[in-house]
Write a structure and sequence with these properties.
Blueprint lengths: L1 H8 L6 H7 L2 H17 L6 H25 L1 H4 L17 H22 L2 H22 L6 H5 L6 H10 L4 H24 L1 H7 L4 H5 L1 H24 L5 H22 L11 H27 L1
Helix pairs in contact: 2-4, 3-4, 3-9, 3-15, 4-6, 4-7, 4-9, 6-7, 7-9, 9-10, 10-13, 10-15, 13-14, 14-15
Length: about 300
């Protein structure tokens, strides 16, 4: 209750760091990187200034979605230990400022991308922002344990946006890159949810470990990893990417699969800092960065 009252009555002056925090910089870094890799993977060359503008717009769009997410979820953020220090629950910013910041960034990023590259890419960026805010944040997150499964599509759009910014169209490769992130999201977030499920329970968020239990969640982690691995290897198997990507994807996916199996077949939760859930969560971030880095390197070598 104390945190909630701080939000309503004791707002302190916000500075630039609070506005930066609204954009969820850690999440944004992954979004920007996968968007850049999608742009590099495209079979056409784009002027460096336009490429920079496209990546900047992807970053601003992701930041806008993060700000609107925190605007809407300020109440539950105040109830979870890992989010209590965000600008709104900590009382460093009022909700109206966060709303205006998020809406302003949304329009600016979409319009700038449309003018600088093409309106097809801008439309995908707009769709990704709306999906994250309206479908995931407003509709799904507080209503169903499938929030991450469906809502994960929002974070999977950047490779498609990068590709579309360069080419003005869509192809199977960026769709597969979308699929990798889409299928990666449930095991990534459920691994996190397994060791912070008390936070979600206290906030009333129906994450899978809270409503279905740890055993079911661990099984689902492994079940979603299997199609993710298939999707990750598909660009190499179908001849869209070369040996650099293929070897990287196979090795990373084997490790991911083994870590997921450790999580799935463990009957009790260990208390040590190297618990399988934490190991999988940490590796999942490395997995996506290195895998998409391999996409870019493979394309640049072939070019």
């Amino acid at each position: 209750m104390t945190s909630l009252s701080v939000i309503n009555t004791q707002t302190l002056p916000a500075d630039w760091r609070d506005f930066l925090a609204l954009t969820k910089p850690r999440v944004m870094s992954l979004v920007v990187f996968t968007g850049l890799c999608g742009l590099i993977a495209a079979p056409v060359h784009i002027h460096p200034v336009l490429a920079f503008t496209a990546v900047l717009c992807i970053a601003l769009g992701a930041g806008a979605a993060g700000a609107l997410n925190q605007w809407y979820e300020s109440d539950i953020d105040a109830l979870m230990k890992r989010t209590q220090d965000r600008p709104l629950p900590a009382g460093r910013m009022d909700r109206q400022s966060a709303l205006h910041f998020g809406v302003g960034l949304s329009f600016f990023s979409v319009l700038t991308l449309g003018v600088a590259t093409n309106w097809f890419a801008a439309a995908i960026l707009a769709a990704s922002i709306l999906f994250y805010v309206l479908v995931y944040t407003v509709w799904l997150k507080r209503r169903t344990p499938q929030n991450i499964v469906i809502g994960g599509a929002a974070g999977a759009f950047p490779p498609m946006i990068g590709w579309a910014a360069a080419t003005g169209d869509m192809s199977l490769l960026p769709i597969l890159l979308f699929g990798i992130i889409f299928l990666w999201t449930p095991p990534h977030f459920w691994a996190l949810a397994l060791f912070v499920k008390t936070d979600y329970a206290n906030a009333g968020v129906p994450m899978l470990p809270v409503v279905a239990g740890e055993k079911t969640t661990r099984t689902q982690v492994l079940l979603y990893t299997l199609p993710m691995v298939a999707c990750a290897i598909a660009p190499f198997a179908l001849g869209m990417l070369g040996l650099i990507y293929g070897i990287t994807a196979i090795l990373l996916s084997v490790v991911f699969l083994l870590l997921s199996a450790r999580v799935a077949f463990r009957s009790t939760r260990e208390g040590d800092s190297m618990a399988p859930e934490k190991a999988l969560f940490a590796f999942s971030i490395v997995y996506l960065f290195v895998l998409f880095g391999a996409v870019a390197v493979d394309r640049m070598v072939l070019a």
